[in-house]
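Need the bound structure for phosphoric acid mono(formamide)ester, inputs here:
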Amino acid sequence: MNLLGIEGMNRDDVLEFLELADQFVDEDGRPVTPKEYRTALDGESVALMFFEPSTRTRVSFELAIQRLGAYPVVMVSESSSMVKGESIRDTCQNLESMGVAGFVIRHPERGLPYSLADKVNACIFNAGNGTGEHPTQALLDVFTLRKHFGRNDLEGLNVAIVGDIIHSRVARSDVHALRALGATPILAGPPHFMPKPEDKWDAEIAATRSQALEAADAVIMLRIQRERMVKDVDMDEYVRDWGVDDSVVEGEMRQTAPIMHPGPVIRGVELSSSVADGARSLILKQAGNGVAVRQAVLLNCIRENA
Ligand code: CP
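Answer from helper R.:
Posting the output first, comments after.
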């Protein structure tokens, strides 16, 4: 079994991962691995292959692998035979022949995890494929919302996603995960960062920041993906119209709505420091929950493949 994207998953598919992830946080939300899971993947190894920078996804996958008793194999492309011209496919097939049970892959090419999934029997975990999907981020986002609201699903909640939507694989996966659990995603951002109608995102659209925030039970802010842009933006204008600081929280948001962000946060752009560090921020909870969610994903997929 692979985890390539959230698109196509239904409520039960998503909840299966989240309910298993519930085992890996205690009642105060702290990470915990119950004794029966500490050797659940004993003897297995999982390769981490990151062709784009990462902090949260790479480290939380590595911790998740270790906490289940498996062994992480960290591939550094610059010192592997890929620099001699070996393809990723050949690299994965060779590692699979050594017994590697899964590949966690982040790569700028959208199609890569899908084509690899056709070529290897080991599990492929998409850790971000260009502007495509970031399925484990979406699972940890809905996991965090579910914990915050103390509910099993997100039925009836409005969740605003604000910023650089079109370049964001997080937004794409979040929309599918939110819909699967009954929430309504509301997208907002400058026109050049918004999807076109023909892109057919399954979400409501808000014309302004205040329109999105006033309707939202929770808000997910996004970073500008400069690495995927062809044209630069006027930062002062962006911060004024789309950034969230204390005055925006007070003036435009519902009174108890939490603020989320997948990270990395660019302080002073999409969020002021006071908001990123403030009482409504779930940002560090998201990062912590990433380990629990990835433990669940690894366990479900690798066990099913065994
Ligand atoms: N949210 C996220 O994917 O963060 P990293 O790029 O640090 O992994």
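Comments: The CA atoms of residues 3 and 125 lie 5 Å apart. The domain at 11-134+287-305 is CATH 3.40.50.1370 (Rossmann fold).
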